């Protein structure tokens, strides 16, 4: 058996001593975490869908930043048009960051700008209708997986913040898509039932007549968006799921 030379032994000993000396220094260094990651400037998304809507939110925040630990609403136009949402829930601080026409990939794309800066106490999500309306090729599995991606993105960054999903509503103008809405709603409900600090808010059933058809009088003339009667139904369904913010 070949015996290592004296030079090799000395080199090995020096490397070991150096490594031991560096251990305290390395221990003091901060291990990078998810929170250390900085979002790119919003300008990175210039030209992408809804860039201007997100930029408007940033401009509003630069003038007056909403209070932290509020209830954050993110999603599509059913939130966007609910401009007086705070009056429906007195005693709760509400921050509405819905932007009309958005789908789940848009929420994922802009999550660094519409979620985390607000340090929310609770997050309410309404989205999915526009995903299905975008193309006939969009399947239930695709939309549910998009929701799960958004959910896990949030959960990694905000592990203790409650997340509530408001079911896709039975919009009369999208009657052909209602079977997909119902199936996706059910799968999202089943998924959330396996996760902590979550809730599923069913507005779909509450917006139907006894014969199973959507209540026409709660929608505006486009048969897609809601009038105040529709939002009163939402108020009733959502209220018991909200976390106190004061």
Question: Features of this protein?
Answer:
246 residues, alpha/beta, Rossmann fold, five-stranded parallel beta sheet, 10 helices, 43% helix, globular
CATH topology: Rossmann fold
Specify the CATH architecture.
3-Layer(aba) Sandwich
Number of domains: 1
The biggest sheet, with number of strands, parallel, antiparallel or mixed sense and barrel status, is: 5 strands, parallel
Q: Stretches where pLDDT falls below 50 for ≥5 residues?
A: 25-36
Alpha-beta content class: alpha/beta
Q: How large, in whole angstroms, is the Cα Rg?
A: 24 Å
Shape: globular
Number of strands: 5
How large is the count of helical segments? 10
Strand content range: 5-15%
Question: What's the CATH class label?
Answer: Alpha Beta
State the separation between the terminal residues, measured CA to CA: 76 Å
- The CATH superfamily appears as SGNH hydrolase
Enumerate the strands of the largest sheet in spatial order, edge to edge or round the barrel: 2-1-3-4-5
Order of helices and strands: HHEHHEHHEHHEHEH
């Amino acid at each position: 058996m070949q015996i290592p030379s004296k030079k090799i032994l000395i080199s090995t000993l020096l490397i070991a001593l150096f490594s031991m000396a560096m251990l305290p220094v390395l221990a003091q260094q901060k291990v990078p975490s998810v929170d250390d990651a900085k979002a790119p400037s919003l300008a990175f998304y210039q030209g992408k869908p809804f860039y201007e809507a997100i930029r408007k939110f940033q401009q509003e925040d630069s003038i007056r930043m909403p209070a932290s630990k509020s209830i954050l609403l993110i999603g599509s136009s059913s939130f966007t048009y609910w401009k007086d949402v705070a009056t429906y829930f007195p005693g709760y601080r509400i921050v509405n960051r819905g932007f009309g026409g958005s789908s789940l990939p848009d929420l994922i794309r802009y999550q660094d700008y519409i979620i985390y800066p607000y340090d929310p106490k609770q997050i309410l999500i309404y989205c999915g209708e526009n995903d299905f309306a975008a193309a006939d090729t969009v399947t239930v599995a695709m939309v549910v997986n998009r929701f799960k991606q958004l959910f896990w993105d949030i959960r990694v960054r905000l592990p203790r913040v409650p997340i509530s999903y408001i079911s896709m509503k039975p919009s009369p103008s999208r009657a052909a898509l209602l079977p997909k809405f119902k199936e996706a709603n059910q799968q999202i409900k089943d998924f959330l039932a396996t996760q902590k600090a979550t809730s599923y808010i069913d507005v779909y059933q509450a917006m139907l007549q006894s014969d199973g058809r959507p209540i026409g009088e709660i929608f505006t003339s486009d048969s897609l968006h809601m009038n105040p009667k529709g939002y009163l139904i939402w108020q009733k369904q959502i209220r018991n799921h909200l976390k106190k913010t004061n």
